[in-house]
Amino acid sequence: MGPEDLHRILAGLNLSFDEPRLIVGATDDAGVYAIDDDTWLVQTVDFFTPIVDDAYSYGQVAAANSLSDVFAMGARPITAMALAAFPIEDLPTSILHDIMQGGLDKVREAGAVLLGGHTIDDPIPKYGLSVTGVVPAHQIWTKEGAKPGDQLYLTKPIGTGILAKATKDGLIDAEVEQSMVAWMAQLNQGAARAARAVPEIRSVTDITGFGLLGHGLEMATASGVRLVIDAGRVPIHPTTFAHAKAGEVPGGSWDNMRHVAPELDVVETMTDGEIVVYADGVTSGGLLISCPRERSAELEAQFAAEDVQFWQIGEVMAEGGHRLTLTGRSEQS
Ligand code: CO
Ligand code: CO
Fold first, then answer.
1. Which residues in the chain land under pLDDT 70?
2. Which of the ligands is closest to the CA of residue 204?
3. pTM score, two decimals?
4. Residue 25 resides in a domain
């Protein structure tokens, strides 16, 4: 669901607790709880309906997506529980087996263990993980802490919402789909490790359902700054703009765009059909990292050492006017 829906549902719910061990509640990528003076617990849960045909790939992507919020908080995942819904009567159980194998392989790759899970009979398949991680006390990354002058880095291309719709409608190029699935199945572990090696980095989030602009706005608002994103530098999966121009844009991506619109300043003449690509909901996207300018060479060296692809997509400026600026021209349009 979109940010607007979520805000409406949460409005009026008292999410504050009289509990000093509660460090981060329902405001960031994952919740954080101090188990003692040295160690903080990071917990998150995520699941969704299939976005690719191949069962094993779907399990990998769903698990990589679930694990991502733990990496985005700077934590190390330790345990996972699987959540699955599956039409037991209508589909061969080997499909669910393959989904679970994909998820399990990603849990293992992340260095965590699977403790169990729960499956229900349901007409529409769903799969994902609840993940628990640990981080040394006071070392989490949040959406706060981006400072004017910081450089913004992104570690995966966007466009998966539009391409997933094209996949469902049978319009996607097989090669593009394959590369998109490989990106979505990739863990944010290496990117997080690279950023971890630069202690001055405090503000990180992952790009998922609210899109680059939606999550960027969250970071800008939480940090009290303005993000200036250079459209031409943002990595976008091939053919995304073509599908967007043909009207293949999920409703949720338009919702994201409406949500950021009051805070979005678009410098060059871009059509709504181009801007929406930057608001497109992402599945298992990369990390958005705000890095102090004097540390950016160090971060880039760490990315290279981890063999992680990265794009420097913009910078952080002092607040004033809009919270988000999309500048430049998208080269793909
Ligand atoms: Co997140
Ligand atoms: Co999440």
1. 331-333
2. 1
3. 0.95
4. yes
